Amino acid sequence: MADREAAKSVLRTQKIELPSWAFGNSGTRFKVFAQRGVPRDPFEKIADAARVHAHTGVAPTVALHIPWDQVDDFQVLGRAAKDAGITLGTVNANVFQDDDYMLGSVTNPNPAIRRKALDHLLACVDVMDQTGSRDLKLWFSDGTNYPGQDNIRARQDRLAEALDAVYRRLGDDQRLILEYKLFEPAFYTMDVPDWGTAFAHCLQLGDRAKVCVDTGHHAPGTNIEFIVAFLLRAGKLGAFDFNSRFYADDDLIVGAADPFQLFRILFEVVTAGALAEDSDIAFMLDQCHNIEPKIPGQIRSVTNVQEATAKALLVDTDALAVAQAAGDVLGANAVLMDAYNTDVRPLLAELREEQGLDPDPMGAYARSGYAERIVAERVGGTQAGWGA
Ligand code: PSV
Ligand code: MN
Ligand code: MN
User: Fold this and answer.
1) What pTM, to 2 d.p., does this model score?
2) Which of 25, 212, 274, 373 could form a disulfide with 239 if both were Cys (CB 3.0 to 4.6 A apart)?
């Protein structure tokens, strides 16, 4: 087994970004079950995100979704985050919730609608200038439902044109992160359906364009760790949207559906050296908590990522290399499984104590009285904006 102390020193520097929208009410298209005490505005979402960081110590940034988190002055929001002990992270654009986008946003056949969508993306870069965010994450719901509905190649041209305009607007320290999704809401073609399409567009754009792997956006059975390994090797992995799924884009708690898959993904990240303190990969969650309480849902998500990371760090890579070089198939597999089957909870508890945190973040949150306080103080919480 690899060195516990070495694993702890990497875990100490790990950072997981929280999505502001995880704290608001969410649901499916059938029903949103409103929870009491949910945030009424972006400031309260930030307060809740800061609470997750206070208990876990590894979630110091929160991602924004525009316009869900639109405020008059983003510098004021940034200061509120700082006062709460966190900072504002990735800006996620939203060109999927306007009637005009029924036939697409940046790939819409109507140039006026394309212009409107592009203007929103450029406005998101203005937001980044104010928040100091490094990354603009783009996900497009664009696509078609029926064969013949639109010209597939023309839509790629329109997409490339919009991405190019956004890329050229970025500052030197800013990046464009392109997210793909197999299907939904479009059911015949998506304009960015897979990592290959995202990768090809990012290659054409340049060094500061990278791919986001949302773990929920693949066909069942897809080998996501292979995609991760490929993108890492090409220097094109920009971000993760972590969540888990049983069927399609369920946005369930990361590591809940398939903790082994999460371990395999993080093993690729760890062995590529991409977890180092200077790593430029954004490890984000993209989740909704439809029926479970949201803040504990986020705490559990963070600890699930930590557990999978700890196991990945415990893989004895020397022994693995020896077994691989010798063609020892079962031996190599056993090295990996030994690490996966290790109970890393004591190691993480120890790490938290060393950091002055309660070793049990879920229990500490439950005992803190925060949940009762927000229920008493906040009446009429907002909908996250997703899945209504
Ligand atoms: C789309 O399914 C997606 O994963 C994108 O990242 C959106 O921005 C996000 O969900 C909203 O939750
Ligand atoms: Mn996502
Ligand atoms: Mn999604």
Assistant:
1) 0.97
2) 212
ipTM: 0.98
pLDDT of residue 388: 35
* Domain-located, residue 273: yes
Atom of ligand 1 nearest to the CA of 288: 12
CA separation for the pair 213, 181 (Å, rounded): 9
3-state secondary structure of 247: coil
pLDDT at 278: 87
Instruction: Name residues contacting ligand 1 (CB within 6 A).
Output: 21, 92, 139, 179, 181, 214, 241, 249, 286, 386
Q: Is residue 182 part of a domain?
A: yes
Atom of ligand 1 nearest to the CA of 216: 4
Assigned token pair, 205: 């754009």
Would you say residue 301 lies in a domain? yes
Q: Domain for residue 67, yes or no? A: yes
69 Cα to the center of ligand 3, angstroms: 18
Count of domains forming the chain: 1
- Domain span at residue 194 reads 4-377
- CA-nearest residue, atom 3 of ligand 1: 139
Nearest residue (CA) to ligand 1, atom 2: 249
Question: What is the number of other CB atoms lying within 10 angstroms of the CB of residue 378?
Answer: 18
Cα-based distances in Å from 269 to 42, 237, 320:
32, 10, 16
